[in-house]
Specification:
Layout lengths: L1 E3 L5 E4 L9 E3 L5 E3 L6 E5 L3 H13 L3 E5 L2 H5 L8 E6 L7 H10 L6 E5 L4 H8 L5 E4 L4 H12 L1
């Protein structure tokens, strides 16, 4: 089920509970929020300028960033298993962002995934609907919406 967050341009899919938690346990048993520098955001976009801009923005907020211009490069790497999320363009060479999200899930490396796209057509909607992504952002991406989506799924 998807919903637009109050006309913000962020489409959120109801997500299952994910093991990628942004908390550590305190002695009192209460979760302690992790600091941004303890969290990793993986970004995949074949548009080098978009990739660089998104990576710089996320880095400037204090997050660790790993940027990839091809999905197969990401798949060949050892990825964080917790305290991480993925931002992937829907239309990528080799495999699309929805397929990348699915591939990570079936190989036991599922991460909360935010899909990004510059297209809003029927094919894109079908790809999003069939994906396991937790949110979709449409380009041009508003910086505050992106940071809100990252924080929401790393929280």
């Amino acid at each position: 089920m998807e919903q637009d967050l109050h006309g913000t341009g962020i489409t959120v899919k109801k997500a299952a509970k994910n093991k990628n938690s942004r908390t550590t346990q305190r002695r009192s048993g209460q979760p302690k929020p992790l600091k941004a520098h303890e969290l990793t955001v993986l970004v995949v976009d074949d548009d080098e300028s978009a990739l660089g801009a998104i990576a710089r923005l996320i880095r400037s907020a204090g997050f660790k960033v790993r940027a990839f211009s091809h999905p197969k490069a990401l798949l060949s790497e050892q990825l964080p298993t917790e305290n991480a999320c993925l931002i992937a363009d829907i239309y990528l060479p080799e495999i699309n962002g929805a397929e990348l999200c699915h591939t990570l899930a079936v190989t036991g490396r599922a991460l909360p995934t935010i899909l990004i796209t510059g297209r809003n057509d029927e094919l894109t909607r079908l790809l999003v609907e069939g994906s396991e992504a937790v949110a979709v952002l449409y380009k041009p991406i508003d910086e505050l919406h992106l940071m809100d989506a990252i924080s929401r799924y790393l929280n």
